[in-house]
């Protein structure tokens, strides 16, 4: 493994490890899965395959961050709206979005 890809793999591991601290299934579960995934791919030699795995790791990071943002939004929504208010607001937004789908974009 070349030095730049080695450094990128280590940085990716650290980033995923940091993101896994607040994983819903528990940080221990996440770290066990993370470690086993990295150990499974430790013997890769092909630079294209290594880059493919790094890209996959970046994608996983983005998905985890998106999941955290959604969970944060949902928790915030629960604090500020009652259940029936949230449902009616959601229905209004969905109907507005559905009605605007058929219209062309304005420039």
Describe the structure.
This protein has about 110 residues and is an all-alpha fold. It has one domain (about 5-95). About 80% of the residues lie in helices and about 0% in strands. The chain is built from four helices and no strands. It has helices at about 5-20, 25-40, 45-80, 85-100. Helix 1 (about 5-20) packs parallel to helix 3 (about 45-80). The longest helix is centred in the middle third of the chain and has 34 residues, at about 45-80. InterPro entries: Complex1_LYR_dom, Complex1_LYR_ETFRF1_LYRM5, ETFRF1. This is Complex 1 LYR protein domain-containing protein. Belongs to the complex I LYR family. Pfam families: Complex1_LYR.
């Amino acid at each position: 493994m070349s030095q730049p890809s080695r450094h990128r793999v280590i940085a990716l591991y650290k980033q995923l490890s940091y993101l896994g601290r607040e994983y819903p299934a528990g940080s221990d579960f996440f770290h066990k899965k993370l470690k086993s995934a990295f150990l499974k791919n430790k013997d890769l030699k092909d630079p294209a395959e290594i880059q493919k795995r790094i890209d996959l790791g970046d994608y996983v990071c983005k998905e985890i961050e998106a999941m955290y943002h959604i969970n944060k939004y949902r928790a915030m929504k629960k604090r500020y709206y009652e259940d029936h208010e949230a449902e009616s607001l959601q229905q209004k937004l969905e109907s507005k979005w559905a009605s605007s789908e058929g219209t062309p974009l304005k420039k």
